[in-house]
Amino acid sequence: MNSDAGIEELLEELTEIIEESKPVLGNSQKRQVEVDTVLAILDEIRDIFPDEIKQARIIVRDRQGMIEAAEVEANRILEDAERQADQIASEQEVVRIAQAKADQILDDAMVREREMRMGAEDYADQLFANLETNLDSFLKNVIRCRERLNSNLTE
Description:
Blueprint: H1 7-20, E1 22-24, E2 27-32, H2 35-87, H3 92-154
Antiparallel strand pairs: 1-2
Helix pairs in contact: 1-2, 1-3, 2-3
């Protein structure tokens, strides 16, 4: 058994153990397996599973941090634009130009924040889709193994 193995690899190892095990004398549908080995693999799967969920949460939290940093940057840019607009107050044309520039900076910051948020959400969605696929595969393999074991017990 490999302690660095992922859930998929451990499930494959479990499947191989069952497929390569000797049949019970007189019944080819029942298999003889070393219970300690199978239980050890199941324990490893239980140990790894929470780590993958923790990793997904960390990634989502990191992405949220990036979004918050973008919002802070947008606010800083907005404050800078407002300060610049306040300094230019004497001539109406100069004030209008400053306001247009501030609006453009704000619009640019909002677009950037939206793009970063969408990127973070897309990344989180991809991560959760991958996790969902892995969990689905894990569940199917567990069901298949249980069906094999159960069919071996009934025969």
